[in-house]
Write a sequence for this structure.
C-alpha cells in the first residue's frame, strides 16, 4: 500500500523496499531507545514484523515504523522515526496515521512506549495507561 504525500514524499509498506542499512544506522546510532542494536537483530525485527512502513523522499528512506500484532486484537507501534532534517512538516503525523489508522490493524487496540512526541501520539488516541495496564521489563522475576 502506497500513499503520495507530495513534494517528493511517499509512504509505502512494501517490506522489500525498506533500506535496512539506513534503518539500522538511525536506530542503532541516533535513537535513544535502540542505541547499539545489532544489525542482525534489526533485520530479524523487520522480517518478523506484522507490518513495516517507510517514509521516502525522492526514493531515499527518511522515516520508518514497525508494527507487531496478533492480527486481530492487539498491535504495538515501534521504532518510529523521521530524520531530523525532515521534521516540522507534518510527516510524522502522516507516518503514524498511515501505520495505525490506514493499515490492516486499524481496528485493533494499539500500544506504544515512548519518552517523547506525546502530543503527536495523542492525536491518534494514545494516552497514559489506565489502572489495568501492567508491564514487565526483561529480567524481572520473583
Amino acid at each position: 500500500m502506497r500513499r503520495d504525500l507530495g513534494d517528493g514524499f511517499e509512504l509505502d509498506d512494501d517490506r522489500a523496499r525498506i533500506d535496512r542499512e539506513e534503518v539500522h544506522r538511525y536506530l542503532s546510532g541516533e535513537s535513544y531507545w535502540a542505541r547499539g542494536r545489532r544489525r542482525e537483530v534489526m533485520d530479524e525485527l523487520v522480517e518478523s514484523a506484522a507490518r513495516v512502513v517507510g517514509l521516502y523522499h525522492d526514493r531515499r528512506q527518511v522515516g520508518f515504523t514497525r508494527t507487531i500484532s496478533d492480527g486481530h486484537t492487539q498491535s504495538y507501534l515501534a521504532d518510529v522515526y523521521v530524520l531530523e532534517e525532515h521534521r516540522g512538516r507534518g510527516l510524522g503525523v502522516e507516518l503514524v496515521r498511515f501505520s495505525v489508522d490506514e493499515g490492516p490493524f486499524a481496528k485493533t487496540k494499539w500500544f506504544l512506549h515512548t519518552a517523547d512526541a506525546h502530543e503527536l501520539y495523542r492525536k491518534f488516541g494514545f494516552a497514559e495507561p489506565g489502572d489495568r495496564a501492567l508491564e514487565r521489563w526483561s529480567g524481572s522475576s520473583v
About this structure: The chain has a mean pLDDT of 94. The first strand starts at residue 2 and ends at 6. The chain has one domain: 2-122.
